[in-house]
Specification:
50% helix; 2 strands; mainly alpha; single chain
Length: 60
């Protein structure tokens, strides 16, 4: 089964974008959040990803 880039339903602070990216690449979500904080242009990218990424399907 292929790994898809989706918002995280469990590891989220605002919308789950950083948690989803971290899960996709297999890194810490803290590292992804720090990257989004350090680079000012990444706020624009975050807003785009928050609106375009699919939500993670609910689990039972």
């Amino acid at each position: 089964m292929e790994n898809k880039l989706r918002k995280s339903s469990t590891d989220k602070s605002i919308t789950g974008v950083c948690g989803g990216i971290a899960n996709y690449f297999g890194v810490s979500s803290l590292a992804v959040r720090l990257i989004f904080i350090i680079f000012p242009a990444s706020l624009f990218i975050y807003v785009i990803l928050a609106n375009t990424m699919e939500d993670h399907p609910p689990s039972l």
